[in-house]
Design brief:
About 0% of the residues lie in helices and about 45% in strands. It has no helices and eleven strands. It starts with a strand and ends with a strand.
């Protein structure tokens, strides 16, 4: 079972920053659209951001636009999510997922074939 591995979560004060990483050891992320999702307790999983494989286009949910940045480092086979100006409402488990279609097609979880185990982000003073 191919799997992604997230890292970089933790506890941060409001207004702070974190950088999440999404890595894979058994397949090449360059050939997949990669999405970041999050799920807070009692809420449904929601899409946060996506980066396409075909042209590197990036997409963001309105709630994080201007604060989060998604990027790829193909040499390291890693996708990052830089999160700035964090708010308490950003608290959630964050997951990355890989879609074998090269373009981002939205934030429907069933479109993504491979998932990581998640990393906890807690924004609190």
């Amino acid at each position: 079972q191919l799997q992604l591995v997230e890292s970089g979560g933790g506890l941060v004060q409001p207004g702070g920053s974190l950088r999440l990483s999404c890595a894979a050891s058994e397949f090449t992320l360059e050939y997949y659209a990669i999405g970041w999702f999050r799920q807070a307790p009692g809420k449904e999983r929601e899409g946060v951001s996506c980066i396409s494989s075909s042209d590197g286009s990036t997409y963001y949910a309105d709630s994080v636009k201007g604060r989060f940045t998604i990027s790829r480092d193909n040499a390291k086979n890693t996708v990052y999510l830089q999160m700035n100006s964090l708010k308490p409402e950003d608290t959630a488990v964050y997951y990355c997922a890989a879609d074998p279609r090269m373009a981002c097609s939205g934030y429907v979880p069933s479109l993504y074939d491979y998932w990581g185990q998640g990393t906890q982000v807690t924004v609190s003073s």
